[in-house]
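Hey,
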Amino acid sequence: MWIDVVFSGGGIKGLAFAGALDRLEKSGYRFKRAAGTSAGSIVAALLMAGYTASEMKKLIDEMDTRKLLDAPAYIRFPFYKWLRVYFKMGLYRGDSLEDWLEEALSRKGISVFSDLPQGSLKIIVSDVSKGRLTVIPDDLPDYGINPGSFSIARAVRMSAGLPFFFEPISLFDGNGERSLIVDGGILSNFPIWIFDREDGLPTRPFLGLQTTDGETENRPKIQNAVELFRGIFTAMHEAHDERTIEKLKDSNVIVIPVKSVTTKDFQISSDEKNKLYQIGAKETERFLQKWSY
């Protein structure tokens, strides 16, 4: 059966999505369209490029996640670290992440959006200059860019651009006005609304895959400025999606709780990668036993 699928953000926890896809494939599901934010955009892009779950697992097993952090040599000095954050607005360039994905997509003969069926892949990013949520490739004409010729790896790099961790990417509109593009999760960390139609009827069955830290119900009280900032950030990337998630969480959302790693934990062992894969597979198996579409 053909379905559409949407992946949430979640940083390195997104490795669990490969395990989820493995169970979906073995249950006979195939994927017509995919969308994602941040780490979810990586999986969505690989999926639409033709990667199977087992091929994704092989990519993950071979990937040295630490090499995705391409900071200059002097970044080990705290003073330069904070100077870089101030002037470059990010500790890491993000080039290695983009290069890795570009090479992975090229193995399937995929580079730009015109290499895929029209409308099959949608990537969520945040335009912090204009204060808007942007869907790539749909909204690229607003920036004077031909959607079909835009690099998929670049779109994913934008969507995964966690603020202050990776440098923002610049886009220029037809008037030459610069926009800074960062992680799509700032405005929509789980874009399960992306395939909605005006008549309210989905084109085909769809599923959302969402990683969580399993602590949503027990968040600490905000008692200082650091916790206030964290709370504001959390509210920003959850508020846009919350109503839709609430309506669908018992029917169309596979929730994958991950407590063993954090979003920015790029130093992850092979055993931890495999554990994430198994968690994704287990939760999906449990969901499919009761799913009626």
